[in-house]
Amino acid sequence: MKIKLLFLSFSFSFLIVTGQNTPMYVGTYTDGFSEGIYKFDFNLNTGELTNLQLAIATENPSFIAYSPNKKYLYAVSESLGGTIASFKIQEYGQLKFLNKVSSHGEGPCHVSLNKQGNKAVVSNYRGGSAAIYNISRDGKLNEASQVFNYNTTDKESHAHSAQFFKDELYIADLGMNAVYQYKLKNNIYELTTPSIFKTTENPGPRHFALTKNGEFIYIINELSGSITSIKKKASGFEQIDFDATLEDTYEGKNACADIHLSKNELYLYGSNRGENSIAVFKRNKVDGTIEKIQTMPVHGDWPRNFTLDPSGKFLLVANQKSQNISVFSIEAATGMLTFLHSVKAPRPVCLLF
């Protein structure tokens, strides 16, 4: 009886320990030491990253995304003749290749899925296009159902990211200085707003974050080192704020990259490549405006993308050039960051929980 109880106690302890960890996948560029998509174990209590493994060998998976049920993973291949691939997640986190299709443009740099998990959208930076795909029940991608080409005779498009929201689709175009809004009608996405904000400058909208109710949209601008804050109204869209991501004293080159809201939507984070920092903003949940409260060095070079862990207690940064991932704790009361530690990773570009 004592042996049985000891065994049950050991088993229970083992379950507690393993329950502290969650997988984190890493999209990379494979022009160096990287071979494809990697996986870490992340400790939700301590913020430690351990057990680095190659999940699957694949070329330049620079951006990756889950299906809503986390049974499948999708990755762009930012290589000549761009593609988007689907993978099935195996029992121990390894990935099994399912299929791949054309991204319909060079330099695919972003992929996202709708909440139902039956549609994906890919943005092609060099091709200046975006493509929508229907996803089968087995996780495989069908050929593109719609392709939007944004290049004109006098301007060069650089579509950089896209997100579904209910029956809407938003696409950020860095080259055209626009964020397009589409609406789903008869299973086809139709353009309803050529751009949700207007500018005569060249900010270069790259990524954006939406509040859970879709009322506010925060756009990080790669070229101007700024965030444009937009409020969605019944009559259209209104710009409510425009804030610098850089310190006033910084004079070097910079290219903003990624942007995320905290889980409680009280704080907003943006990455600066050049200043090599995360800009932290406090958000007014009533009027949607933001105020910068911290500039946190990333302890690395060229913070491409970053993410918040499932608990909302940690922020992790992929430093592309220095080939490391930095982990920060998030102070619940203030949203501010504290550096914890860093681990080496081969050419990290995108982090996925």
From TrEMBL:
It holds the Pfam family Lactonase. The keyword Nucleotide-binding does not apply. SUPFAM superfamilies: C-terminal (heme d1) domain of cytochrome cd1-nitrite reductase (SSF51004). Keywords: Carbohydrate metabolism, Glucose metabolism, Signal. Residues 1-19 form the signal peptide. It comes from the Bacteria. InterPro entries: Cycloisomerase_2, Haem_d1_sf, Lactonase_7-beta_prop, WD40/YVTN_repeat-like_dom_sf. PANTHER family: 6-PHOSPHOGLUCONOLACTONASE (PTHR30344:SF1), 6-PHOSPHOGLUCONOLACTONASE-RELATED (PTHR30344). Belongs to the cycloisomerase 2 family. This is Lactonase family protein. The lineage of its organism: Bacteria, Pseudomonadati, Bacteroidota, Flavobacteriia, Flavobacteriales.
